[in-house]
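re: that chain from earlier
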Amino acid sequence: MTTAERIAAEEISHLTLVSKSLKDEMLKSFTRRIELFENVIHFYPQPFTPLSLTADRCQLSCKHCNKHYLQHMIDASQNLADVAEQLHNRGTIGIILSGGSTRDGYVPLYQ
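^ sequence. v structure.
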């Protein structure tokens, strides 16, 4: 068994509800991916910086986020233009505007 086959087998071993024929195809596909691209994930700096218009504030606390993602965004709640200009001067090519909301879905833009 090659290293790629061993890694692929480990990755799909937990799939107990998948048919044997599908598992075999997954094993072949995953093995080939590892042979071509290794078993490494490369992370690159984000070309777009996430900004929050509400800092870390949100009244919804949805299960998929629970304000977690807001904590990792740059706070642009006080002066969006200044924050955007500072990022531009540092070489940022774009921004993603996001933020929390009130219970009725409104995104408050704080002054």
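The CA atoms of residues 77 and 110 lie 6 Å apart.
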